[in-house]
Amino acid sequence: MATCLNSRTRTLLSQKPRVLSSFFAERWFGMLPNQDHLVHKSSHFIGGGDLALTADGLRASFSTCLGLTDKPVVMDAPSNIFDEKHKPQQDQYQLSPKNCRDLFKAWGCNNQETSQILERMPSLYKAILDKLESKLQILRDLGFTSSDLVKIISCRPRFLKCRINNGLDERIRYLEHLFGSKEILQKAILRNPSVLTYDLKNMIKPTVELYRSMGITGRDLTLMLLSRPTIIPRTSLNAEKLEYIRKTGISKDSKMYKYVVTLVAISRLETIREKISNLEKFGFMEDEVFRLLGTSPLVMTLSVDKVQRNMTFVVASMKQPARVVLEYPFLLYKNLEKALKPRMILAMKIDNMGLDPSINGPKVFTALRMTEKRFVKVFINCHPPEIANELMKCYVDAKHVKRLAEKAKKTLHKGFPF
């Protein structure tokens, strides 16, 4: 064995000095501390006379290797042995995404957000990655995060399918100037992502100029653009709509003026006529209807069915004249099943029990207008525990009364009302 080691080592050293890899050198010279152990292990197979020769051979071989040079001796290692410094590190470069899921993850989306996006818009699986990546980069430059991207796709599933690159720089500069800051523009895009897709020359600028000509500018215009996301594509004003605005009798200095103008502008003429006619059925004159719209323009956002049901309850159950809503418009906004009916039932319960404070006279409108927390505090929790528990049970039970034939009701879709 010693002869073999000596022969092998001398053969290597007699050749032209080659550079050993650090891995091979460490393994080779790392045997030095264990040479006595190797000799002991070899004693079972080597005779006693050869044992000393084997030990001397090991020592001589390693000593010869070590004494060759003081420099690190490195030898060409097999191709499958790598130095740690030469190992390919994946952190040094980023692999190109193979599909849209990898692209969303590289953009910053986690697994849940990626699944939500692809579930909302499955056709993104077939999207061209280069185009999709450029659109995601636009959103990143605008300051949007992965959670914002989920909101955008949930609101407008086909957003990433639109051509948002055309004239984008000019559109963004105009919108930033219009909204006043990049942060407000982000809010507007989150509420209506299609803002980035609207045509600047033929849609955005004409709409803005139209409202400015009506006296809505600055912060009022920004507020309307944020509160009504579809104001840009749906705005239209003609002679009949301008006449409706004039009939409300509202001045441009009023805080309600911007709401009246925008709601009339985005509403269809058929919708406006239908809602005016619905209120006239309860005995209102035309000038009273427009006065109501001037003082509470959000009445135009209520459905015909909701106005009919609330007005019927006010007139038939509360025994109030229809014109009371001119003074208390909130009666049209309140939820009939969750607020109006339960509170009136509780008012009757309190009156039958002879408790104080009672809900009658002018207090009725005050009680109906209260928040839920304040109403419970003022009219229920003010009593002793036993009475308060009885009143609370009555109030909760009244809230759980379901609307008759609600499941059998057929919803008739007539298109977007505005």
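^ that was protein a. below is b, sequence first then the tokens
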Amino acid sequence: MALCTTTISSSIFSSKFLSAVKRKNLPLLRSQISYFPSTFTYSVLPPLSSGSVSSKIRAVVGEETSGGSRTGVSVYKPKSYEVLVNDAAKSLVCALEEGNIRLEIDFPPLPSSISTYKGSSDEFNDANIQLALAVARKVEELKGTRACIVFPDRPEKRRASQLFKTAFETINGVTIGSLDDVSIGAVPSFFQSIRNTLDFDFDDETEDTQNSNEPPSFYIFINCSTRELSSIEKYVEQYAPSTPSLLFNLELDTLRSDLGLFGFPPKDVHYRFLSQFMPVFYIRIRDYSKTVSVAPFILNYTGALFRQYPGPWQVMLKQGDGSFACVAESDTRFTLGETKEELLRILGLQEEKGSSLEFLRRGYKNATWWEEDVDLENSSAWRN
């Protein structure tokens, strides 16, 4: 017998669903959000204690916010990538004005169906370059900064300088560099020279047009892999010890998972270096599914971990109209396991606490090593 599936959206809040929620003794609060279709009438929220303001998680659905507010957004539905870029740039400027120098921006550079390396890596890299240029342009308009975009190596730098020559020339103060600019020992230099020769790494006159005598106001690192994280650290130590540095769409959660494996940098790179970078604009979208014992047997739903500085970390549930509604927020970063638990809680799909079903679903560990090893980190900025 084939399994039936359904996708959770605003329309799931039907009479049958609400009656099922009531059997779980979860209170229903009327939503104050006017952006959703009329079928979205209720939000499922856990009971809040009198000290909920100081608790780790509190619901903010229906709460209005203003620009620059440290309160989270109720609903997030960017109409275009231009809106995403503007929001990311404003968050970045706010963090820079407060004196933060180790920063991260991470959001899907392409439509979710072909995002990251599931599609063409060239499309992924080129989209990141265009978005980085757009952010650099917006920050220059808002703050008058000069950005240096740093590529993994000289071939990538040359390719970008040729494909996006016009864009580089039209944005004031934007220069380019590569991780190959870092001074290294004689043996690595020998192998680097061989690689450059095999890559036909000859000088290109177009690269000189993106150089400047003035030092950059901040550095943007893009399209780097796990192997290049150590090179980023050396680059920052050499060129930007006190200059703001931005890790742009590197998908650090994916890169961190390779640290410590054979042929990759050690985990200490996270403890010592990556832990310093505070996410100022972050959207991590994930699809989930939940097996139930009655029809439709499999429930599919989509959620996101969201942060728009200076606001808090938020767990968002995707609605039928494509918007994301906040269901929980925290001053500190949610782990991946906590994000899923919040989504299950708001949908009324959690197993009974302490039951065998809960243990079988969650397993013995529900957090990654970089989320657990708090005591080994030199900084907690990446969690704030």
